[in-house]
Write a structure and sequence with these properties.
Elements (H helix, E strand, L loop, with lengths): L1 H16 L4 H19 L6 H31 L14 H19 L3 H12 L4 H8 L13 H10 L3 H29 L6 H24 L2 H21 L6 H22 L1 H7 L20 H51 L2 H13 L6 H13 L2 H15 L4 H18 L3 H11 L3 H10 L1 H21 L1
Helix pairs in contact: 1-2, 2-13, 3-7, 3-13, 4-5, 4-10, 5-6, 5-18, 6-19, 7-16, 8-9, 8-17, 8-20, 9-10, 11-12, 11-13, 13-16, 14-16, 15-16, 15-17, 15-20, 16-17, 17-20
Family: Belongs to the lactate permease family.
Subcellular location: Cell membrane
Keywords: Cell membrane, Membrane, Transmembrane, Transmembrane helix, Transport
Length: 475
């Protein structure tokens, strides 16, 4: 019976492995979940209840979908601006800045692999060969749990039914541990790219990454999810600019390039941190499902993302440019939006109908607390195959709620699964193909890049699994 209950996830992952699109796999998995829940669900839901579960999942996916659309508009409006950065000398510091700071910042603010594109392009401009450029660009994705202002992490928390504030600092701790163990891999790949770090480079970047990770944990303890990673990255990036260019580096041209991001941070800070603004924007709010979160449209990060994108477009080309931007955004975001609804709906059917709970009881009776190790592995598999941490959450969160009792252990296991799924999106076929097409890499060059990244797979999956097992054993 366990295999029957698992069949929606097995079908979903199997279709992706066979080469089907994520949208096709998501639709098939959702229909399979509905059918299995109706025929063999432990709670024996009727058709109306199953439709209700899917609708509740779609409602959870709605805020994320709006951010996807608005974030894509924001990203598209700034595409040409990112190419106007000052050229850098081909040295290790410039490579590290592109892959470890600028790429993660852009991925956090916009998502959609923008940070990866910027990092791989920056590496190539520094003279790095195609294979090592693809491998090094992977490090731009180390903050994917906060990518696109954290929409995938928010969805995972909603599916699992855990407080977001209690989850995000645990995710930051796991990310900090991985940052420490992955930095030597970055140096190893830099040597292969013929931009090796000197001792001074190692000391500088070890210090900067340590500072970044400390700030990341502190920010996630005190700030909303949307602001935390940006708040951690900004001072580290400022220190790097001052170290390289001094105060003269903070010129008008730099501020002009950064103005859309500065406007976004200011808007988010006002919306989230100023009580008078937050309280005014909190209404109207809607909660059509008792077990789903409230949604206040005016508090959505989608609002400032969209407004800033339109302002940038209007300044560049007037109403015609703005109209073109919105048409392109809607055309490109349709599949991602539909996939989000399907994945969250599938996960919510599995949780609400009792499928996830039945799986948990069966597996736990055999493996006991060791079954917690399955959760980050499932997240990693979902992230790798779908290229989305929303997809990773849809695969792993039903298992987390089923296999780990509520409490501190479940929060730690969920955090480990979110990190595993997020960081495996960095090496997913979806992300790597994007870079391969961008720099016109051959299939052998892409394969060489993936072989160089085998420690990434081992370290991410191994450490997150160890965290999950330790949490379950100590609970």
């Amino acid at each position: 019976m366990v295999l029957v209950w698992l069949s929606p996830l097995i079908l979903f992952l199997g279709l992706i492995l066979s080469g089907r699109s994520a949208l096709t796999a998501g639709l098939a998995g959702t229909l399979c979940a509905a059918l299995v829940a109706y025929i063999a669900g432990p709670s024996q839901p009727d058709a109306a209840a199953i439709i209700g579960h899917f609708a509740a999942g779609a409602w959870i996916g709605l805020p994320a979908t709006l951010v996807i659309i608005a974030g894509l508009a924001f990203s598209l409006s700034l595409e040409k601006a990112s190419d106007n950065a000052d050229p850098a000398l081909p040295e290790h510091g410039a490579l590290a800045e592109a892959c470890l700071l600028r790429g993660p910042f852009l991925e956090t603010a916009t998502g959609f692999g923008v940070g990866y594109v910027v990092a791989v392009s920056g590496a190539r401009r520094l003279g790095v060969d195609k294979a090592p450029a693809l491998a090094l660009a992977t490090f731009s994705q180390i903050l994917v749990p906060w990518g696109a202002l954290g929409i995938g992490t928010r969805i995972s928390a909603d599916i699992a039914g855990v407080p977001l504030a209690a989850l995000i600092w645990r995710i930051a701790l796991a990310t900090a541990l991985l940052g420490a163990v992955l930095l030597p891999l970055f140096w190893r790949l830099s040597r292969q790219a013929r931009l090796p770090p000197a001792l001074s480079d190692r000391l500088e970047w070890a210090g900067l990454i340590a500072l970044l990770m400390a700030l990341l944990v502190a920010a996630n303890l005190t700030l909303p999810l949307e602001l935390a990673a940006i708040a951690a990255l900004a001072p580290v990036m400022l220190l790097r600019v001052l170290r390289v260019k001094g105060w003269a580096g903070l010129d008008r041209a730099l501020l002009a390039r950064l103005s859309p991001y500065i406007a976004l941070v200011v808007a988010l800070a006002l919306m989230r941190l100023v009580p008078a603004v937050h309280d005014r924007l909190e209404h109207p709010s809607f909660k059509p499902f008792a077990d789903a979160s409230t949604f206040a449209p005016l508090l959505s990060p989608a609002l400032p993302l969209l407004v800033i994108a339109l302002v940038v477009a209007l300044r560049r080309g007037g109403a015609k440019q703005a109209t073109t931007l919105m048409k392109l955004t809607l055309r490109r975001s349709g599949r991602a939006a539909l996939l989000t609804f399907l994945l969250v709906g599938m996960a919510w059917i599995m949780v609400g109908s009792g499928l996830a709970g039945g799986i948990g009881l069966a597996v736990s009776s055999v493996l006991g607390s060791w079954s917690a190790g399955i959760v980050p592995v499932a997240g990693a598999l979902g992230g790798y195959l779908t290229g989305s941490n929303t997809g990773a959450g849809a695969v792993s969160m039903p298992l987390a709620t089923a296999l780990v009792p509520a409490g501190e252990a479940r929060l730690a296991v969920i955090a480990a699964a979110v990190v595993a799924g997020s960081l495996l999106t960095a090496v997913s076929p979806v992300r790597v193909t994007m870079g391969q097409v961008l720099i016109k890499a051959t299939t052998p060059e892409t394969g060489q890049a993936m072989r160089a990244l085998w420690p990434w797979f081992v370290l991410v999956v191994g450490l997150t699994t160890a965290i999950a097992l330790a949490a379950a054993q100590l609970a």
